[in-house]
Amino acid sequence: MSEPIKNSRVASLVAEAADLQRSLKSQAERLEEIKVEIRKEAGRVEKDGGPQVEFDSPFGVCTVVFISDMPTLLKGHDPRGLLGKLAEDKWDLLFREKVVLAKTFREAFPLLNQKVKRTIDQYVEWKTIEPRVILPK
Asked: Which of 4, 11, 113, 123 is the most buried (most CB within 10 A)?
């Protein structure tokens, strides 16, 4: 890696951005701590298993919405292992498969012939990604 570029104008911007980032991180951490306390209090006052609790404040009403537990797939487990263990109608009732681009798409696409590329281009777009800015911690 080459030496970092010395540029006083950018250095000043980096210093300001790093300071703002630290401040935002600190504020976000405190906000999460406060939300934990609000959730705890809402859990204590929840009436009749209602879907939400509202707290009044000088800034307006804060609403805590209770959301039902949600099933999720365990990491590292492939539910397709259940295909032979469940009847097809049960599988269809419980699971849906999702199509995503293969990790090798970027490397494989240029190797395809033009006709195949044009067909795929009707379904896939290439998005320009903003360069990342990684600030000092």
From this structure: 11
